[in-house]
Amino acid sequence: MSIPPAFSDIAKPSNDLINRDFYHTAAANLEVKSKAPNGVNFNVKGKSAHEGSTSGSIEGKYVDIPSGLTLTQTWTTSNMLSSKFELDNNIAKGLKAEVATDFVPTSQKFGAKLNLYFKQPSFNARAFFDVMKGPTANIDAVLGRDGFLVGVEAGYDVQKAAVTKYSAAVGYSVPQYSAAITATSNLSVYSASYYHKVNSEVEAGAKATWDSKGSKNVGLEVASKYRLDPTSFAKAKVNDRGIASLAYNVLLRSGVTVGVGVSLDTQKLNESAHKVGTHFEFSG
Q1: Is the pLDDT of residue 272 over 80?
Q2: Of the candidates 62, 75, 206, 240, which lies 20 to 30 Å from 105 by C-alpha distance?
């Protein structure tokens, strides 16, 4: 029996199709990946927003395979230093323990979290503890069998001795297609999603969302992906508000990927409500 996805990934196929690789969300994105001779992986990211300042980060990651230890450190342009220590399959089989810390030198603010991930056939559970705030705990679990998935999530504030949130989800997933229904925000926001891999070249999906405490209308998004050839693909999506998005991604050569995206407000074609973005990725 296979390991089911985490609670947040029950609707991952449709969410990835609808949200990933649409480059209009920022004016420009740059990502550079490299690996040092000693095995340390570096990842440098930069983003220029449509409005606001440019942001970036540099990340170093080292994996010691024999011990199962992974060390990741990140420094951002907002002057935040993040460190993460992971132990995978070291304490117990299927268990990964993670300690994550954040430190801002200018304000002397410090944060610490303990995260636990436990995976077994037909079972996937996670627990996230924020040591400095509350402390608080967020726990979720998913049971899976023959493609069927059932998951629950809950948040708890130790200081207040109160449940802060709860969610639930059901789904069905096989390699060719998947469907999921989620109820989040204390069972007040409902989403239904569907993903279908039509063939090796075409993917299609849709998602409907209804906020029972907000708008009476149902939000709808429809997306598709078409692989033009082994090195490039195009994506398109449209939502109920008339926002249409297009994206194109191409591998120019080994280690060099370029993406271009555009978002059009079809109800305001004569206004400056449209967005264009680019993405450049280099790896070596």
Answers
A1: no
A2: 62
